[in-house]
Design a protein that fits this description.
Helix content: 40-55%
CATH architecture of the largest domain: 3-Layer(aba) Sandwich
Strand content: 5-15%
Number of helices: 11
Shape: globular
CATH topology of the largest domain: Rossmann fold
Strand order of the largest sheet: 2-1-3-4
Number of strands: 8
CATH class of the largest domain: Alpha Beta
Length: 263
């Protein structure tokens, strides 16, 4: 991936005496999950197009510790967090952008207590900032007039009150934004939060992601937009369970923008 896209590491930049404007925190999903890698690539393409000076930690990046903490292993979380903080502080990191709300929430709200103080932004906030500064331009292109419903990730929406940035970006694509009955402060979890992503569902009548997908389908969307790799997985599975994958796409906001720009 690094060969086809321009993705410098902090180590490389530091060695050449440069300091990037922002550290792109890729996260476990964005690094290892084949579907989420596409989100990472889309975001990198936009950063390159906007001439943003950024770098990744590469092999020096470890899990933020979010799944460990949510699953109740505070000891493991603190070990992972302190290791990351030592690396980031050594590189004098000031600003971090990530496409994963779990990483976003943990870096922003949990790391300061352990000595990691950074300005942390979600990629939708960063993309909106680039748009406002005129560093990227957005035309609807293939998404003009398309019906798009947006699913609020729990750790972005209810945990951190970031509701408008992703919606503003969808509107800028000249798409028709249709809201689900449970949205914003009343949003329903996709079912993967709190380390649930990594275990089998509990016994019950219906999986949470199927319930959420049904709410999305009620809006008769052509696209379900997400801002989280976990949500993307759960909504994709939900769409497949309803056998709608041929007619409804599940795409990250970064993918929508990259596709609209033909990046």
């Amino acid at each position: 991936m690094a060969s086809e896209l321009n993705v410098p590491t902090m180590a490389e930049m530091f060695a050449s005496g440069q300091k990037p404007e922002v550290l792109f925190w890729v996260g476990c999903a964005g690094s290892f999950d084949d579907r989420a890698k596409k989100i990472t690539k889309a975001f990198v393409k936009i950063l390159n197009k906007a001439n943003v000076s950024f770098a990744v930690l590469g092999t020096e990046e470890s899990c933020t510790g979010d799944p460990a903490k949510r699953a109740g292993n505070e000891f493991l979380f603190q070990m992972q967090a302190v290791t990351n903080i030592e690396v980031m502080n050594a590189y004098e990191v000031k600003k971090v952008v990530t496409a994963c709300p779990h990483c976003f929430n943990t870096l922003k709200n949990e790391y300061p207590g352990l000595g990691g103080n950074y300005e942390v932004v979600h990629h939708t906030q960063f993309l909106k900032q680039l748009l406002e500064e005129g560093r990227i331009t957005m035309e609807g292109g293939s998404y003009k007039g398309k019906r798009i419903t947006y699913h609020d990730p729990c750790y972005l929406g209810r945990a951190n009150n970031v509701y408008e940035a992703p919606r503003d970006l969808i509107r800028k694509l000249d798409a028709e934004l249709v809201e689900m009955k449970s949205c914003k402060q009343r949003g329903l979890c996709c079912g993967a939060g709190g380390a649930q992503m990594f275990k089998e569902p509990e016994k019950g009548d219906k999986d949470v992601n199927v319930e959420r997908t049904e709410q999305a389908l009620e809006t008769k969307p052509e696209i379900i937009a997400a801002g989280c790799p976990f949500c993307n997985t759960m909504m994709t599975d939900g769409v497949k369970s309803k056998e709608k994958e041929a007619s409804i796409a599940v795409l990250d906001i970064a993918e929508l923008i990259a596709n609209a720009q033909d990046l």
